[in-house]
């Protein structure tokens, strides 16, 4: 199930009364033509390298995008806002950063000296300019879709999408410049840049930095139950985390003391570990909020059923066992795999192997839809309670479909073992019947004739005599 019908996405694409929307569109148009003029000479000088750089970095961007989608376990902001964030990061932020970075690097050369600026200029100019550009983009996208964004973790994902757009376009520019400036050939320079920035720097890059600062922005804007100084301090702290990660990645620290490749790998581990801590804290806070809303919200009164019964009632929105299984994708997958196996074993008593597998796959799809619908319970109750009847109907219909297949998510282990034993007995009886039919068909004279026993043969001989 996709997101419940909160406000229509058409309203998101057209907001004439929202000044943030108009500022965003104006900046997008100006930045697009600015980037077009900047990339045009590179495309003319090396068209093959330009096409390769664009295709390779777009493919790598899709990989990172799938990672971001995979990380959004419970719920995520609308796709339209994700596209808007990618456009800000890939067009507006990059166009501004091209000019601001050059000016700041020139200023650092004058202030710190040519050698110091050459060693530390990227570490200072990069995070100082680019992180606030991505943070402003996250703030602008949240301002455009404020009615669709209600949780701090939405800021984390919007920031990640904004950073992903910046990362893809910046890597395209680096790859094209590397192809032109390499003394050997365009292919050599392009391969070197793609190897370092596209593969080694694929994960610990701008989307990670912007996700951290975006989480702070989302917390400051959306956690109105917290005091304002606490929210502002948290946002500043998360921006400092993002800035520090970016600084470490661009600086000669670690790589200057170790072998370059080993130093880069150490940086990758450190940055990803820091992001994992931030993501873990965000997901734990989101999970506590989900359980609190499901347990206490009046609109979801009685939503969580107990685990004592063999299986949840068809009108139960979510059981305690199902709530625990929704927390991570691994737990969700285990539930789907277990129920697929249950349905397959039970179906083998009345269907062939292929039909049993098909029923198992169908049960897996239904369980996935049920888990998605249950994940939207808290956010729907908090932001659009008028949509809860439709969500309740959806969950009930999915439970009915699962019951028809013999699947019982949340059923007790004893009940599942009983069903498995019944299915095994049915399968054994079916195998015995098939063996009898096979033996009868192999005998001469047909399946309906049988050989006379010893007593019958004696009686027959006596009668003949």
UniProtKB/TrEMBL annotation:
UniProt biased composition (Basic and acidic residues): 425-442
Protein name: PrsW family intramembrane metalloprotease
Key words, A-Z: Membrane, Transmembrane, Transmembrane helix
Domain of life the protein comes from: Bacteria
Record has Hydrolase as a keyword: no
Signal peptide per UniProt: none
Source lineage: Bacteria, Bacillati, Actinomycetota, Actinomycetes, Micromonosporales
InterPro entries: PrsW (IPR026898)
Region of interest (Disordered), ranges: 344-364, 406-465
Membrane spanning residue stretches: 21-39, 45-73, 80-100, 196-221, 228-249, 261-282
A GO MF label: peptidase activity
Ranges of Basic residues composition bias in the record: 354-364
Organism of this sequence: Actinocatenispora thailandica
Any matching Pfam family: PrsW-protease
PANTHER family the record matches: PROTEASE PRSW
């Amino acid at each position: 199930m996709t997101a419940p019908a909160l406000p229509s996405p058409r309203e998101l694409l057209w907001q004439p009364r929202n000044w943030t929307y108009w500022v965003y569109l104006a900046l997008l148009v100006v930045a697009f033509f600015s980037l077009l003029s900047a990339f045009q000479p590179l495309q003319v000088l090396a068209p093959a390298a330009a096409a390769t750089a664009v295709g390779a970095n777009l493919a790598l961007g899709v990989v990172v995008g799938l990672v971001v989608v995979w990380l959004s376990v419970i719920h995520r902001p609308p796709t339209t806002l994700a596209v808007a964030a990618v456009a800000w990061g890939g067009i507006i932020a990059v166009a501004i950063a091209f000019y601001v970075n050059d000016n700041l690097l020139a200023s650092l050369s004058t202030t710190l000296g040519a050698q110091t600026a050459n060693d530390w200029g990227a570490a200072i100019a990069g995070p100082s300019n680019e992180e606030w550009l991505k943070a402003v983009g996250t703030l602008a996208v949240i301002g455009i879709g404020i009615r669709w964004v209600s949780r701090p973790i939405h800021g984390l994902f919007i920031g990640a999408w904004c950073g992903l757009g910046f990362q893809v376009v910046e890597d395209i520019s680096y790859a094209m410049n590397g192809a032109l400036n390499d003394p050997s050939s365009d292919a050599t320079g392009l391969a070197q840049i793609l190897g370092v920035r596209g593969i080694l720097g694929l994960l610990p890059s701008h989307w990670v930095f912007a996700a951290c600062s975006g989480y702070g922005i989302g917390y400051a804007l959306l956690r109105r139950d917290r005091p304002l100084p606490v929210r502002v301090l948290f946002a500043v702290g998360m921006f400092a985390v993002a800035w520090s990660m970016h600084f470490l990645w661009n600086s000669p620290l670690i790589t200057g003391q170790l072998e370059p490749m080993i130093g880069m790998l150490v940086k990758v581990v450190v940055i990803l570990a820091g992001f994992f801590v931030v993501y873990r804290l965000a997901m734990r806070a989101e999970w506590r909020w989900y359980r609190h809303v499901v347990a206490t919200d009046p609109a979801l009164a009685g939503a969580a059923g107990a685990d004592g019964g063999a299986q949840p009632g068809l009108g139960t929105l979510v059981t305690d066992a199902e709530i625990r299984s929704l927390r991570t994708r691994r737990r969700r997958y285990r539930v789907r795999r277990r129920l697929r196996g249950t349905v397959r074993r039970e179906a083998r008593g009345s269907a062939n192997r292929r039909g049993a597998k098909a029923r198992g796959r169908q049960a897996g799809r239904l369980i996935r839809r049920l888990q998605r619908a249950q994940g939207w319970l808290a956010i729907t109750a908090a932001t659009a309670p008028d949509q809860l009847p439709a969500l309740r109907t959806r969950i009930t219909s999915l439970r009915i479909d699962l019951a028809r297949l013999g699947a019982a998510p949340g059923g007790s282990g004893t009940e599942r073992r009983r069903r498995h034993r019944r299915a095994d007995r049915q399968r054994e009886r079916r195998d015995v019947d098939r063996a009898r039919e096979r033996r009868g068909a192999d005998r001469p004279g047909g399946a309906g004739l049988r050989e006379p026993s010893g007593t019958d043969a004696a009686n027959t001989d006596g009668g003949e005599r």
